Amino acid sequence: MLLFKDTSMVFTFFFLVSLFFIVKVDATYESHSDKSPYIFDFTIKRKKVLYNNDNEKIILSINNSNDTYGPTIKVKPNDEVRIRVTNLICNEQELAKGANGKSKIWQDYCQASLHFHGLINIGNKVDGVPNLTQKPIENGESYWYNFTIPEDTCGTFWYHSHSSVQYGDGVRGLIIVNCVEYDTLKNNIINHLEIFGTSTLQSKSLLFADKNVLSSTTFIPKKFDDVTKEHNILLSDWYHERTIDILEKDVLVDDGTNDPRFESSLINGVVENNVQMKILESNTKYLILRLLNSGTSGTQVFHIPNKKLIIFETDGTLLNPYVTDTLTMAVGQRYSVLIKIEDEDKNEGFPIVKGINGCNKMMGYVTKTFWFTPIENESTITQNVETYIQENQSNNIRISKLPNFNNDELYKEYDNAKDGEIWKSNNDHSLKRIELFYDNYKAENTYKVNDKTFEEYLESPIIIDNSNNTILEIILNSKDHMRHPWHLHGFNFQIVSMGKGTLYKSAIVNHRTDIDSVKQYFQDLKYWETSRKSPLIRDSINIKGHSFVVLRVNLTNLTKKQLGKWLLHCHVEWHVSKGLGAVFQITNTSTATPNNGSNNKPISIDTMTTKIKVLTIYCILICLINYYIYIKFI
Ligand SMILES: [Cu+2]
């Protein structure tokens, strides 16, 4: 059978086939259902954007985006992910500033990296910490982050640069790991509200007394899909100047002891007030919101007037749904929240819902109003919405006066959806305690943890030999007066205890319950033993000034991917620049040596271009051979 009418068609066919292979190398896929890897191609480049109508700012844009966020990555457990990051951050003048060791600030800023915040068990070499788990990605170079989403991963995560203070200017985005358990929990909440309504919801209480209900699927979940909308809300502080300029001018200078003040806040990348999220339809009954505090410094507050927020996931941990009015989020934290849209939210047949956002700025808050509005763009509806917003704007919002406002970590109120218990050891040998003390050394303009800066820990980490299959207990003491948001890489932790004052390891060992902090610690341990709850598992936490927190990390049955050097650091970019962080090196002398990332070397663009050229020549040769075979033998 003749498939091609003439030889030129044969050539064209094979040439197109070869082109397909060339194109696939660089293609970016956001979602698919087959087993092939998810490939993302991120080019980070400086870009001038306008905000507040005509103000200019240079941001770091991923793939030419007009705001400081890259695309949302949506994956499932067991998916393979490949992300290529290409660094085109600095122009020649900026590169010259950092060249030959002239300015370390600019040298660091012109390099690139990508960290996957909260994704654990994906491997140390893809943790994205320059000069610790990988070589920095230099200007003009590309680097592949290849990993598999672990089986038990579920919920909301994010990616961000770990180089200098870059992610404040861009290089950040959301990662959603979809999974059956999340959907089951969500649908069970909706089912509960369908039966009992919202009038019975009690603030500061758990929705279900019995956790078994979380796994029940006695109804048809899909019937609510049409009336449920899901939306992501990315919150951040906002500086009119670039973070690198602030770092150079105001932070890493002799008199730079105070934090720079941010001017405003961002809701989904927008600086202006009264942001509209056009997502509602006339029949929308439920709103699922994934919230992320992706800021560089400020704690975020989220509130919907006259509505209950039903919180059912945080930091990739599913929760027995917790009912509240106002949610507070430390930098780095994520939350999934469900709210119900009622008939009284409707205006001219379409729902409009108002939201309040506060971003903590020194003693006060930058406050914003935002709106969930109809997706319809008919001019009459748009006009109605505009009028409604003008008539219902909020003035003089006092964030601290919002109902059930609380900026403490709710470490006992939240409850893991899954049954569990406190991670503990059968004997003292396998419970390893580490005490850390951090403070601001104003005379030196540095922060230190146990008298060492973050830079010093890069050279000499805290070694944890895990040949005993340890439960690690980190006692983190703030000697500073400020609140700091801490994040642990590579592992999540249980929040075992928190309180005022200082907690010493020796005082625990000696059972000094006459000291308040020790008394609090043992009271909390007793609470976990006697209550039906287990400590909340998460990866980011706000720690108040002059207080302590006890975090347990489960180092039993480690895989090779968990060995290596991992950061524990404050997520305020200005503070980590001044030294507020430490490095743990998890080793296991009885198994493999840690991976220092040296086998994941950056690939230069030239190398990649050469590969594509070779592939092109190969494909053309194949075409020619086929063409020759065709005219000679067929
Ligand atoms: Cu801090």
TrEMBL record:
Keywords: Copper, Ion transport, Iron, Iron transport, Membrane, Metal-binding, Oxidoreductase, Signal, Transmembrane, Transmembrane helix, Transport. One of its GO terms (biological process) is reductive iron assimilation. The keyword Metal-binding applies. CDD domains: CuRO_1_MCO_like_2. The keyword Transmembrane applies. The chain crosses the membrane at residues 612-631. GO terms for molecular function: copper ion binding; ferroxidase activity. GO terms for cellular component: fungal-type vacuole membrane. InterPro entries: Cu-oxidase-like_N, Cu-oxidase_2nd, Cu-oxidase_C, Cu-oxidase_fam, Cu_oxidase_CS, Cu_oxidase_Cu_BS, Cupredoxin. This is Multicopper oxidase. The lineage of its organism: Eukaryota, Fungi, Dikarya, Ascomycota, Saccharomycotina.
